Design the sequence.
């Protein structure tokens, strides 16, 4: 089981593959939506709730796959650790990171959504699904914050940690 | 150094917390709000009918009708390529374009008309010097000096030059309160120093650097000085002869003009000796199949069709700025800045980056220990109609040195008012309240938790 940890620790040692992820995200990201419509609250209560008291934030002991990335524009950082079994089922998953409410709350929401699911479910989960999961409509720049954890989890399934096959 | 500065920055905040004394606004120093009527965009509404409060002027400024009309006027009456045709329109365009150059010469008090080179902006101006002067004059073991508060566009071109030539890049430190450390400058300036590249005003800290003194020190060891004046030329009087700087760069879009045009000023003797950078039309005297001879200044550095209409728009902007008065603009911004600074500084958990008001231009950036700058920018926009900048403002190394990744920046111009600053401050308070921890207990945990 994971142990919870407040802040970012070993992120610096993780390989950054920002460039690769960015190209992919820009291809997959849905068309820019217009400005948030009338008074759509970006910071709904359940989002702030995820931010303040996140789901599975910390470090995972039995990690098999991990990836981290940052949003160079604003310095948001997210790292995700996965424990996958031989059938590709997600045994457990944890994230850590630093950044704005949207980047951190969306990571928490994504992990909660993927808990108990499979690698295939992650692969099937599109950028659009991620934005829908977040809820309030985001401008293109804020979509980058929201999609950071989504990019990271997509990268994590292809990034076995040392000592794993 | 990293911990040192980060620690100091936050201690500084605490030290000030007990003394939130505020200086009364000197109304006589404020500009008349009537200037606002010249800016159509200021009556725009954003985010559900809130009047726009535009405090992102360090990134780019808005345009008065006079500039917009100058631009449409050229397109409607005078437009053609410059320096090429002998037809009427080409002559008119050329005249307006060269008149813009003369306006820039006056703005900078440059000695010669041809010391003003039109570029696409500050970034292009700096790169021109790094490529042309740099490649011709810098070699292995030479040193280029920059400061840690530089914008990426006054840092990366020098990193590239160092990589091309084997020169060494050195960084002048800053003091704990975000001013240039003159002792560090003295230590780093040696006969190995070929050039010092420094911002006259930091676009993040707002610090006004003592350029004349810096130039004197650099010249004493035989080093040249390039001034990144993107944040000073639009806001205060500039005199390149008094400063005695060797190169100076600025952008039209930060001074009420259009984007796509900027200026490189260089001393005549230096520009004359420098090889051309971009090759193409206009910059040549004569071309053979295998060779060319370059044109005289300023054409030598203006290859291809220049930013004709942007330059003419900038010319109208300079007229406008002279009409308002650059000294008056500076005084107005000083009032707004002090007002904003003194009211922000007693906010719990907030840290203003950079020095006290008397050392800064119209820029106030801050970081909060618990709330990301994105939240400020987003809520200020959505709920208050206030446009501010969030992020690193193209000064990543500076942010890193201060131990943060991002900050929120408010930057003022001649059309901003005390009421707008109040509105901004009210927004900051609201954001703080909105994101204050509420001891949430999760209702979402999976059964295994
Ligand atoms: C201090 C400073 N230097 C350089 C620049 C770059 O100017 P531009 O993007 O117009 O080339 C800016 C503005 O972005 C700036 O604030």
Sequence:
């Amino acid at each position: 089981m994971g142990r919870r940890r407040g802040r970012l620790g070993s992120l610096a040692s993780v390989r950054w593959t920002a460039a690769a992820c960015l190209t992919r995200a820009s291809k997959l990201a849905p068309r820019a939506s217009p400005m948030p419509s009338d008074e759509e609250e970006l910071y709904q209560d359940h989002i702030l709730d995820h931010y303040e008291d996140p789901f599975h934030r910390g470090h995972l002991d039995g990690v098999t796959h991990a990836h981290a990335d940052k949003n160079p524009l604003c310095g948001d950082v997210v790292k995700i650790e996965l424990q996958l079994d031989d059938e590709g089922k997600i045994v457990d998953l944890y994230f850590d990171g630093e950044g704005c409410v949207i980047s951190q709350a969306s990571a928490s929401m994504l992990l909660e959504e993927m808990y108990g699911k499979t690698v295939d479910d992650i692969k099937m989960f599109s950028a659009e699904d991620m934005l829908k999961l977040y809820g309030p409509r985001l401008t293109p720049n804020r979509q980058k914050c929201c999609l950071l954890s989504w990019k990271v989890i997509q990268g994590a399934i292809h990034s076995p940690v040392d000592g794993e096959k | 150094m990293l911990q040192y500065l980060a620690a100091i920055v936050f201690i500084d905040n605490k030290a000030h917390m007990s003394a939130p004394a505020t200086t009364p606004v000197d109304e006589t120093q404020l500009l008349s709000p009537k200037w606002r009527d010249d800016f159509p965009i200021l009556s725009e509404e954003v985010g559900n009918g809130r009047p726009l409060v535009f405090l992102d002027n360090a990134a780019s400024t808005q345009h008065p009708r006079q500039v917009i009309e100058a631009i449409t006027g050229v397109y409607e009456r005078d437009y053609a390529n410059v320096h090429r045709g002998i037809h009427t329109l080409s002559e008119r365009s050329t005249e307006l374009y060269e008149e813009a150059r003369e306006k820039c010469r006056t703005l900078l008090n440059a000695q010669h008309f041809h010391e003003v080179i039109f570029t696409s902006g500050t970034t292009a101006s700096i790169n021109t010097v790094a490529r042309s002067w740099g490649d011709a004059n810098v070699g292995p073991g030479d040193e280029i000096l920059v400061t840690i508060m530089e914008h990426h566009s006054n840092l990366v071109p020098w990193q590239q030059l160092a990589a091309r030539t084997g020169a060494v890049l050195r960084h002048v430190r800053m003091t704990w309160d975000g001013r240039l450390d003159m002792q560090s400058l003295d230590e780093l300036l040696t006969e190995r120093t070929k050039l010092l590249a420094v911002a006259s005003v930091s676009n993040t800290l707002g610090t006004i650097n003592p350029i004349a003194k810096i130039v004197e020190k650099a010249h004493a060891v035989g080093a040249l000085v390039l001034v990144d004046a993107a944040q000073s030329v639009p806001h205060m009087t500039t005199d390149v002869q008094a400063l005695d700087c060797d190169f100076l760069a600025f952008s039209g879009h930060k001074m009420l003009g259009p984007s796509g045009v900027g200026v490189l000023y260089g001393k005549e003797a230096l520009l004359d000796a420098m090889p051309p950078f971009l090759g193409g039309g206009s910059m040549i005297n004569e071309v053979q199949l295998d060779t060319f001879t370059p044109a005289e200044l300023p054409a030598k550095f203006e290859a291809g069709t220049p930013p004709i209409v942007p330059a003419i728009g900038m010319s109208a902007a300079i007229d406008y700025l002279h009409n308002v008065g650059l000294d008056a603009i500076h005084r107005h911004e000083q009032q707004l800045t002090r007002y904003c600074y003194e009211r922000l500084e007693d906010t719990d958990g907030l840290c203003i980056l950079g020095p006290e008001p008397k050392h800064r231009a119209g820029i106030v950036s801050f970081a909060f220990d618990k709330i990301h700058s994105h939240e400020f920018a987003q809520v200020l926009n959505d709920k208050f109609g206030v446009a501010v900048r969030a992020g690193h403002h193209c000064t990543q190394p500076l942010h890193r040195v201060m131990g943060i990744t991002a900050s929120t920046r408010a930057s003022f111009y001649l059309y901003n008012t005390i009421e707008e600053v109040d509105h901004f401050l009210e927004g900051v308070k609201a954001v703080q309240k909105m994101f204050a921890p509420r001891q949430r207990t999760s209702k979402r945990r999976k059964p295994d938790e």
Observations:
- Chain B has two domains: 2-62+325-434, 66-322.
